[in-house]
Specification:
524 residues; alpha/beta; FAD/NAD(P)-binding domain; de novo design (two linked rop proteins); five-stranded parallel sheet; four-stranded mixed sheet; globular; binds phenylalanine; EC 1.13.12.3
Length: 524
């Protein structure tokens, strides 16, 4: 009998299995915490969870498996927090005097306003999708057919769109050619043997698709001229010509905003995934498991330590309501903690005050026609520009459908601040004007939009926690320890900030800590 078989066949509780060493301590990555009946060891112990985002939902779900009695207090009328899918009827009014917006997308159209992609190595996220039965599909992140557009440069290649594949293959070609030439002149003889040099030149020939003379003269990797693809009969196709090296060097594409061409960043490497029908499939699946445990439309007003635990006051239907418990799991984003009346210790309050959050925004633009697919052959992926729109994301779902919603901007820092400060109508105008330089079809095909700025979004107040070495050292440790009977969870309590995996991992860590505290589980 394997351990798995034993665990599956026994009626012993999850907690006893933990205690007997039959289950590994919840690891940070891949996990198998499938419930074995209902645990009883946490029974009778009341836990109040602030926030029904992913961290709060996960904590409630896992604590529930162990028999704890959890109540989730959620300020919004929905769960998910920064996991938020924008679709017809979605409403929001932003902080700082924002106008009320209601999404008017057509049936079946949506975009993920917050979390929008799952790296294939975020095992904890994938494990929860598996456990909750949330079906996944490919999120196409890197698309060589998408565009780069450098606005305001002087070179011949500025102020015009360029296919990522053209830039990529030309730069690969020229740099390979230059290195191959240097090697041919035996300039690296001291470091490499003759055989090594030959092998390296072979690599460069392949890497840059150099000709037999080791020169880069363009390559069929760039594809064919418009309307000159290979065809039936006597139609071999006409290859495109490479851009010149000096033109490319003056193009402006070496600015940091154009990095991540292709999928260089670890978190953006193929394969990326997304739930079918929107990222909110994940919180919705949790909600089904937590029926009756979430109190919605209940902003937390006060968080107090008591002799035996915690006391929370939230607002419900205009009236304050008090609730007590033995423990609290506080998943509120730090910007929300700042203004909360509480007995939290000075170190926690300082963490809330001094750990900055990312300013970031998105706009969804609905178009009558999927011109990026029909005219440009772009199926998913991301175009990049130094304009304020920064990134344009093409949907990876409903390909070749009738209409489509693309993400007309995804920006950060000062770009997000500038755009987020605009009234909704002006954000739309800016997205259409700037995006229209890359896609002239915007003008005739646009229907409607819905934009958001996370730093202005009620109950979030920012995209994600932004640490540097100093804030990690100075403020982060306070969030890892319980403050009395109050535990902290959320992406801001991890080294996986800005990812759902952080929310999941933090919840697991907190569940472990509480369970250890009540003496039911010894951490190995
Ligand atoms: N996870 C977010 C995203 O995928 C934020 C992020 C962006 C994190 C880039 C790291 C790098 O967009």
């Amino acid at each position: 009998m394997t351990r798995r078989d034993f665990i599956n066949s026994t009626s012993a509780s999850y907690a006893s299995l933990l205690a007997w060493g039959m289950l590994p301590a919840a690891p940070a990555s891949a996990i198998d915490l499938s419930a074995n009946g209902t645990g009883s060891d946490g029974k009778g112990r009341k836990v109040i969870i602030l926030g029904a985002g992913l961290a709060g939902l996960t904590a409630a779900y896992e604590l529930g498996k162990l028999g704890y009695d959890c109540t989730l207090i959620e300020a919004r009328s929905r769960s998910g927090g920064r996991v938020w899918t924008i679709r017809n009827g979605t409403k929001e009014t932003e902080l700082g005097g924002g106008a009320a917006q209601t999404c008017a997308f057509s049936e079946g159209q949506y975009y993920n306003g917050g979390a929008a992609r799952i790296p294939h190595h975020h095992e904890i996220t994938l494990q929860y999708c598996r456990e909750l039965g949330v079906p996944l599909q490919i999120f196409n992140g890197a698309n060589e057919s998408a565009y780069l557009y450098n606005d305001g440069g002087t070179g011949d290649l500025a102020n015009r769109r360029m296919r990522i594949s053209d830039y990529h293959n030309d730069m690969r070609g020229y740099t390979s050619e230059l290195l191959a030439k240097a090697l041919d002149q035996s300039s690296l003889d001291q470091q490499l043997t003759k055989e090594d040099v030959e092998k390296l030149v072979d690599f460069l020939k392949n890497e840059g698709d150099l000709n037999t003379a080791h020169l880069y003269k363009g390559t069929n990797r760039r594809g064919y001229k418009s309307k000159s693809d290979p065809g039936a009969g006597n139609v071999p196709g006409v290859l495109t010509d490479p851009y010149g090296l000096t033109d490319l060097l003056r193009s402006g594409f070496m600015q940091p905003v154009f990095y991540n061409v292709g999928d260089y960043a670890y978190e953006q490497q193929t394969t990326l995934l997304q739930p079918v029908d929107g990222m909110d499939s994940i919180p919705k699946a949790f909600e089904k498991k937590l029926a009756g445990k979430i109190i919605f439309n209940a902003p937390v007003k006060e968080l107090r330590k008591t002799e035996n635990g915690v006391r929370v006051i939230y607002q419900k239907d205009g009236k304050p309501v008090e609730i007590s418990g033995e423990f609290c799991v506080c998943t509120l984003p730090l910007p929300m903690l700042k203004s909360l009346e509480s007995d939290l210790s000075g170190t926690v309050k300082r963490a809330a005050d001094f750990i900055p959050y990312m300013k970031t925004g998105k706009i969804g633009l609905q178009f009558k026609r999927r011109f990026w697919e029909e005219d440009d052959g772009i199926y998913g992926g991301i175009s990049r520009t130094n304009m304020d729109v920064n990134q344009i994301w093409y949907p990876s779902f409903s390909l070749q459908g009738k209409k489509g919603v693309l993400i007309g901007y995804y920006n950060f820092y000062s770009r997000a601040e500038a755009v987020g400060a605009l009234p909704v109508a002006d954000r739309e105008k800016l997205a259409l004007e700037q995006g229209g330089k890359i896609h002239p079809q915007y003008k005739t095909e646009f229907e409607n939009s819905f934009s958001l700025a996370w730093h202005r979004t009620p109950y979030s107040g920012g995209g994600w926690a932004l640490y540097d070495d100093a804030t990690r050292k100075k403020y982060y440790p306070a969030l890892l320890e319980p403050d009395g009977n109050i535990y902290f969870a959320g992406e801001h309590t991890t080294y996986l900030t800005a990812w759902m995996a952080g929310a999941f991992a933090s919840a697991r860590r907190t569940v472990e800590a509480i369970h250890a505290r009540v003496g039911q589980y010894t951490k190995k």
